[in-house]
Amino acid sequence: MAKFTTLYSGSSGNCAYISSGEGYLLVDMGKSCRTTVEGLKTLGAPISNLQGVLVTHEHSDHVGGLNVFLKKYKVPVYSSADTLDFLYTNRLVPESAELIDIDGRTEHIGDFSVQSFETSHDSAACRGYRIETPEGKAAAIATDLGYVSDEVLANLLLADFVSLEANYDLDMLMHGSYPYYLKTRIASSRGHLCNEECAETIVKLMQNGCKKFALCHVSKENNTPETVYSTVMRTLAKNGFVPEKDCLVQVAERYAVSPIIEF
Ligand SMILES: [Zn+2]
Ligand SMILES: [Zn+2]
Fold first, then answer.
1. 220 vs 10, 13, 29, 170, 254, CA distance in Å?
2. Nearest bound ligand to CA 168?
3. The domain at 2-262 falls in which architecture?
């Protein structure tokens, strides 16, 4: 059985975990090496079974713990060439780190087959990932995206499990304390995904048969887990689904390891 969880999730740091049998991958490592290692201990996942770290983009809430971690543990890092260039040039990874450009092909990493796809975000070259497990199941992970492009949707539609960003509630953002330029950046097509668009995307995925979802990168200032959940539930009900019966929707914990989702 393939498993997914997040070690932590939100603008203070993101790290997703996906496993099949003994082997596992991480997506991003935004908090310290110590916090990440503690999370893996909670999961009972030895670091010797970590087969690779996929990086979405270079913002600190996604790579903040990488440098120290990679000095201690030799694990390959996968991302787009531009993101890897940025990490290397800005010394966000050790000089000896094994950096692998994953774009444009299927990469076999340990027990998994991984494909990247573009996400629209104000970084060098942000990516989402579709990860196939040895059981023939697929997970898709997309955080930090201003909108769901056709390419993103096509990748999510191929997955049995989807981890999607639900960053902000538009009303809370617009009436909140952020300065105008920041509000505009977050809400732009190269910013973050709002609850409404996340919910509408989940409807499309459910109409296609996907039933398991983790909602990630929830803003501390412009959202609450309850707001995310109720927006998604309301949108599903409006579209004829009975959420409690038809699907599993989990809002990722900000500071702790979330319950494991099997798929
Ligand atoms: Zn970002
Ligand atoms: Zn982020």
1. 7, 12, 19, 13, 9
2. 2
3. 4-Layer Sandwich (3.60)
